[in-house]
Specification:
The structure is a single chain. The chain is an alpha/beta fold and about 280 residues long. It has a single domain, classed as TIM Barrel. The protein has nine helices and ten strands. The strands form two sheets. Strands 1-2-3-4-5-6-7-10 form an eight-stranded parallel beta barrel. A hairpin with a 5-residue loop joins β8 and β9.
């Protein structure tokens, strides 16, 4: 069907996936020593889109968090013909602005706000906030603070750009949250692997799919460990059949498991080969 064809050039690759991880055991980690070199690998392998990562352990050393270094990012992306389509505010998992003392919540909110402002200076389309794991919603008060905060942040977006919530909440709870936010420039990032690992009912997830603007391509096993696409419990055939049915027009990001042997390009190409059956 139109709108859902396989083209690896249109799938964003998570930052750090083409180089060895600089922090053992971390799937999402900003490669502070290798980010420029990695962009050259994007060009060499004809990957056009990247999902930038803002990890908590080295956020202050991430050029996207430093105003005077934004032009350096622009220069290297332009040189290597790479577009930053999404940014994953990964540090939010450790620092959710809806939890803690009033002073701490303000500081955490301001940190996320600064990252959003800088992302808009680079015209990044999708600003992904991971409301999951340690940053999962635990109380009604946290839910209320999240909604208020996201509404404030949405006013900083450029036209046609989005804040996307990625959540491991139960499907109907997530539907309620996005309905309460009720803004055209706030949507959802759907993670195939996370939902499969949680064994969520896809029939219930369909209820919020009109809000999904980006999909993370990931698979997980029964222990909720990320694995190569097709080696876990995700039902890709069912999901992609549905995406074709609704003529999904959103974007995709490759977030599958890393190569165990550091054969990064080969691992990504193996995942692309798997996707050709469905896209």
């Amino acid at each position: 069907m139109p709108g859902l064809r396989f083209d690896k050039k249109k799938i964003a690759i998570m930052q750090g996936r083409l180089v060895d991880s600089e922090r053992k055991g971390e799937l999402q980690f900003f490669p502070k020593k290798q980010w420029k070199r990695e962009l050259t690998l994007f060009k060499k392998n004809n990957f056009r889109f990247i999902e930038w990562v803002a990890s908590s352990q080295n956020l202050s050393e991430n050029p996207i968090f430093v105003n005077k270094k934004l032009n350096e990012i622009k220069k290297h992306c332009k040189k290597n013909k790479v577009k930053i389509r999404s940014i994953d505010a990964q540090f939010f998992i450790k620092e959710p602005f809806f939890r803690g003392s009033n002073g701490r919540m303000i500081k955490k909110f301001d940190k996320l706000k600064k990252l959003l402002i800088n992302s808009q200076k680079l015209n990044i389309k999708n600003f992904i906030i991971p409301v999951l794991e340690e940053a999962g919603i635990k109380t009604k008060a946290e839910e209320r603070r999240l909604i208020i905060g996201v509404k404030k942040l949405s006013k900083l977006l450029k036209k046609k750009n989005f804040i996307l919530l990625e959540s491991d909440s139960q499907p109907l709870k997530l539907l309620k949250i996005i309905q309460l936010i009720n803004l055209k420039n706030v949507g959802l990032n759907y993670d195939i692997g996370n939902s499969a690992g949680k064994k969520y009912n896809f029939e219930l997830e369909k209820k919020y799919f009109k809000h999904v603007k980006n999909i993370h391509l990931k698979d997980k096993d029964n222990q909720q460990k990320s694995v190569r696409l097709g080696n876990g419990v995700a039902d890709f055939e069912h999901i992609f059949r549905y995406l074709k049915k609704i003529n999904y027009r959103g974007t995709f990001g490759m977030q599958a498991a890393r190569s165990k042997d550091n054969f990064h390009i080969a691992e990504i190409n193996n995942n692309f080969k798997f996707l050709r059956k469905y896209l």
